[in-house]
Amino acid sequence: METPTLNSILISLLIIVIVTSIIKVVNWVWLRPKKQEKWLRNQGIPGTSYKLFFGDMKDYSFMCNQALKTPMNGFSNDYFPRVDPLRHHLVTRIGQDYFIWAGATPMINISNPDLIREALTNMKDFHKPRLNPIVDKLFPGFVNYEGDKWAAHRKIISPAFHMEKLKLVLPAFYDGCVEMITKWEKILGEKDSYELDVWPYLTTLSADVISRAAFGSSYEEGQQIFELLKEMTVIALGTMQSVYIPGLRYIPTPSNRRLKKIEDQIHTLLTRLINKRKREIEAGCPPKFDLLETLMDSHHKETQNAAGSVKNQQLGMNLREVMDECKLFYFAGQETTSVLLVWTLILLSKHQDWQARAREEVLQTFGTSVLDFKGLSHLKTMSMILYEVLRLYPPAIQLNRRIYKDTKLGKLSLPAGALVTFPVLLAQRDKKSWGDDADDFKPDRFSEGISKATGGSNSFFPFGWGPRKCIGENFAMIEAKMALSMILQRFSFELSPNYVHAPMTVIFLQPQHGVQLILHKL
């Protein structure tokens, strides 16, 4: 009997590796999805049939691209068919509880408000999904952390968004709004009215305010960061409409090379921003009480404890983590408020009675004087309007979670590895919760608060729910109230005949073709 040679051993090992890999791939792209599909159907959950490797991603991408080619036929708050035509087709055909396929992963849509709340408050089983490392680059920092690290970072950052801290940075909100209003007044000049696309001004305003209030800088200083983040968004959006292949980001494709260059440039700009603040602190400059100060203080604690125990080293953030949090808030802080403002201006243009009521409240509270925190907190009509806008036009039209083990949700048994989606948009206009006028703009429904408006149905969550609820909610609401109040003090406005109603989702819900308003001087 011959002794096995080294070559034969290596060949045998290679065959074992190849066969094992083939089995894993076949299980990933076919056996497991088909097993999960059967599991879901046996529970009475309808859905699409699994298609090898791509699932429904090709159909999803094609239908979205087709929908964006034409605007809506007139103005309507029922824009779901345009922003998510695949899901609209399924909801119309089989109901609001169903599953589709993101590649080889089932995405299970849950519409019951009680189950949504149960899932969003259960961080142990329902985790933030890591769909794609390229998309994750847009949302680094604590929003993607889990467990103790998430809790530690959230605890560090939260004080920067408490009402008492936000009062201290209110002048930054005001300065940003004054700059935008001044531009509008110069554009109007001696004219009584003027048509203006307000969307780019609102994105600049939100960028300016987050720069001033969170980082103690200005829009001009942060402009490069915002422009780079916009370009990164375009690249990330392209990857979201296709199946992500593990390891693909390491291949030096043109988009991957550009993404790496963008990351390096943002790193350089944030380093410059942080070093500038370091010099100010060392020079004994007065504290600014902003987000960057909070992050820098945390980093200082981390540095001080570097020589201590492993436990002590978790007291603060390292420099890379500080940069990740800066990038997160530059992106999310700008996008969330700008879309809230733009949809509010659109709806107040359509509903002149509510525009008049909001203006009357602002003038009764402030006259034409400078706004203050106490007055802003007492603008009840304004709050009702903003809640109704958030109900009809939430910044994110759905929330996603991933489960890593077989998980019970109500009477459902969900398979490990699945994505679970919660349709914010549909839940917030479900006629069972909101009545037959759910698609109509009626801020009066919030006259007695959110709980009364929903009938206790847990069907209003534009900023999320549970422990992971958006940390910047108060920031966004104060900025929106400040900007809208200052606009209402100086202008009336209506939609231009040139305005085309075309909501679209680019991470957040925004107008595809801008927002042309006719501004009138008061």
TrEMBL record:
Superkingdom in the source lineage: Eukaryota
A molecular-function term among this protein's GO annotations: heme binding
Segments traversing the membrane: 6-31
One Pfam match: p450
Listed PROSITE patterns: CYTOCHROME_P450 (PS00086)
Sites where the protein binds heme: 470
Alphabetic keyword roster: Heme, Iron, Membrane, Metal-binding, Monooxygenase, Oxidoreductase, Transmembrane, Transmembrane helix
GO CC annotation: membrane
Subcellular location: Membrane
Cofactor dependence: heme
Main location: membrane
Similarity field: Belongs to the cytochrome P450 family.
Name this polypeptide is given: Cytochrome P450
Species per Swiss-Prot/TrEMBL record: Chenopodium quinoa
